[in-house]
Amino acid sequence: MTTAVKVAANTMKALVYHGPGQKAWEDKPKAAIKESTDAVVRITTSTICGTDLHIMKGDVPTVTDGRVLGHEGVGVIESVGLSVQNFKVGDRVLISCITSCGKCDYCKKGMYSHCRNGGWILGNTIDGTQAEYVRIPHADNSLYAAPPGVEEEALVMLSDIFPTGFECGVINGQVKPGDIVAIVGSGPIGLAALLTAQFYSPAKLILIDRDDNRLKVAKAFGATDTINFEKENIEQRIQTLTGGEGVDVAIEAVGVPSSIETCQAIVAPGGRIANIGVHGKPATLHMEKLWDRNIALTTRLVDTVTTPMLLKVLRSGKLDAKKMGTHKFALSDVMSAYATFGNAAKENALKVILKA
Ligand SMILES: [Zn+2]
Ligand SMILES: [Zn+2]
């Protein structure tokens, strides 16, 4: 009897990657403190990211057999290391997809994504958040206190998609009042860019995708115009919508060569191209067309430096993050959640919520 209880207390259930196409919800040793700066969080809400699907395809070689997936989550602090100062057992926290020490040269520059002792490691090089418990290194800098009164299903969207859409798309694209903005890709990240671009009152927000349902959602989320590129010529529509000028900001939110090439084809002189997508293949840079057009092209891995600001916006009620969650599953039913999310177009899925 005693032994059984002891075993139960030292194991947890987790979604474990076993090579391309193979995963299982299985027993793992329970997450535990390793360094004095760690915290262990009991997951109460998690979600699946497009990046997790890339991992399942074998596109991310840093993820090895046995890794617990997931880099987004909300939970309650279960235990803290001796040097954690900002959090105590029982605190409700948002887990950032980026782990950062706050002390290295990159962190000092606000580039948490390139932290020498962190970066995107959760569900990549260390075990992640699609589990009952997760160990968070550098807890003081990598966790955020959950604002009172904010629902977890809204809060979890700030682990990754909102800071990503906002920092890599809207901030790097320098969206300004009156701008015409095009976003290529109407998935969760493109929609997060769409919602946060509206902080700046652009004149037009044009969403480009091949999925009519996602374009319909984009309209409901504030897009002024949509283009289904399987039915319409993107460049011609953009010419019509912009009086032949092109767009001030073209945000890439897919991660394939054709989408970044579309951005190059539709950007106006003086415009900005902001890449968000994770690219696995080279894309053509059309310097023969762009060399004299005064454009800027940016790339970025989310630094999550805007998370405190986004938390304030969320708390004020001015960002309806919850509407990104279209499906809900029990955390223990994560295998079904992957099946639904992997079939997003057919299932009309944006983000799938996992509740423990
Ligand atoms: Zn993610
Ligand atoms: Zn650092």
> Span from first to last CA?
26 Å
CATH superfamily of the largest domain: Medium-chain alcohol dehydrogenases, catalytic domain
Query: What's the helix count?
Result: 14
| DSSP strand count | 15
Secondary-structure element sequence? HEEEHEEHEHEHHEHEHEHEHEHEHEHHE
Query: Beta-strand percentage?
Result: 15-25%
Which small-molecule species are bound to the chains here? zinc ion
What oligomerization state is this entry in? single chain
Tell me, rounded to a whole number, the average pLDDT.
96
Q: Which architecture of the largest domain would the CATH scheme give at its second level?
A: Alpha-Beta Complex
**Rg (C-alpha, Å):** 21 Å
CATH class of the largest domain: Alpha Beta
The residue ranges in which pLDDT falls below 50 over 5 or more consecutive positions are none
Lay out the secondary structure:
Layout: H1 2-10, E1 11-17, E2 23-29, E3 39-47, H2 50-57, E4 73-80, E5 92-95, H3 105-108, E6 133-136, H4 139-142, E7 143-145, H5 152-155, H6 161-171, E8 180-184, H7 188-197, E9 204-209, H8 212-220, E10 225-228, H9 234-241, E11 247-252, H10 257-266, E12 267-275, H11 287-290, E13 296-298, H12 307-316, E14 325-330, H13 334-342, H14 344-347, E15 351-355
Parallel strand pairs: 8-9, 8-11, 9-10, 11-12, 12-13, 14-15
Antiparallel strand pairs: 1-2, 3-4, 3-6, 3-15, 4-5, 5-7
Helix pairs in contact: 6-7
The structure holds zinc ion (2 copies).
Residues 100-101, 103-104, 106-107, 115-118 line the site of one zinc ion (ZN).
